[in-house]
């Protein structure tokens, strides 16, 4: 990469806002958003009563701190191919159609949050937007994507990664 690209990449990385649970609590206080925390089946659930006109915006965060720093780039790749491969029950096209017909979208990202400067928290985030009557269906789609994705698609994965690289290049150039 030439110097301009390296500078843009460095600026992009330095602009990342590291959120901590404490920062999120402060944001809720500033904007007067009521929320509550519960434990459901050994999973921490945070719920807020913000008016979303009946639309459910769910974020499922999975702890990735069991991975080493060498594994981190692969977690980014996982988020790039999430919901873009065949599963046991869907081809990619039928999965994409099912997601678009029944939800407002299902996506994934890999994020790093910080409790403090010495404690980065790696999280795999699955987000979905759905109407209440489709929530169970959407969660079953997420479960299918997590547990039944076919990662043996040796031709498709490089194509998806090439698209990701092209999109990144366009972002830095344009």
Strand order of the largest sheet: 3-5-4
What is the structural class?
Answer: alpha+beta
Uncertain runs are 12-18
Strand content: 15-25%
What is the assembly state of the chains in this entry? single chain
**What percent of the residues sit in helical stretches (DSSP H or I)?**
40-55%
Shape: globular
Major sheet, described briefly?
3 strands, antiparallel
Straight-line N-to-C gap: 16 Å
Q: SSE order in H/E notation?
A: HHEEEHHEEHH
- Give the averaged pLDDT, no decimals: 83
By DSSP, the count of extended strands is 5
Counted by DSSP, the helix tally is 6
Rg, rounded, reads 18 Å
Overview of this protein structure:
With 174 residues, this protein is an alpha+beta fold. A hairpin with a 5-residue loop joins strand 4 and strand 5 (120-130). The chain has six helices and five strands, in the order ααβββααββαα. Helices cover 43% and strands 24% of the residues. The strands form two sheets. A three-stranded antiparallel beta sheet has the order 3-5-4. The protein has a two-stranded antiparallel sheet with strand order 1-2.
Properties at a glance:
6 helices, alpha+beta, single chain, globular, two-stranded antiparallel ribbon, 174 residues, three-stranded antiparallel β-sheet, 43% helix
């Amino acid at each position: 990469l030439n110097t301009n690209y390296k500078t843009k990449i460095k600026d992009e990385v330095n602009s990342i806002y590291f959120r901590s649970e404490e920062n999120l609590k402060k944001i809720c206080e500033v904007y007067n958003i009521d929320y509550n925390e519960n434990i459901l089946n050994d999973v921490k659930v945070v719920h807020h009563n913000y008016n979303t006109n009946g639309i459910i915006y769910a974020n499922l965060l999975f702890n990735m701190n069991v991975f080493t720093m060498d594994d981190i780039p692969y977690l980014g790749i996982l988020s790039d191919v999430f919901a873009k491969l065949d599963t046991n029950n869907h081809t990619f096209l039928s999965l994409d159609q099912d997601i678009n017909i029944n939800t407002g979208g299902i996506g994934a990202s890999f994020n790093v949050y910080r409790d403090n400067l010495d404690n980065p928290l790696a999280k795999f985030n699955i987000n979905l937007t759905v109407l209440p009557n489709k929530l169970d269906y959407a969660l079953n789609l997420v479960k299918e994507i997590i547990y039944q994705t076919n990662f043996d698609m040796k031709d498709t994965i490089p194509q998806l990664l090439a698209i990701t690289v092209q999109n990144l290049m366009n972002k830095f150039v344009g």
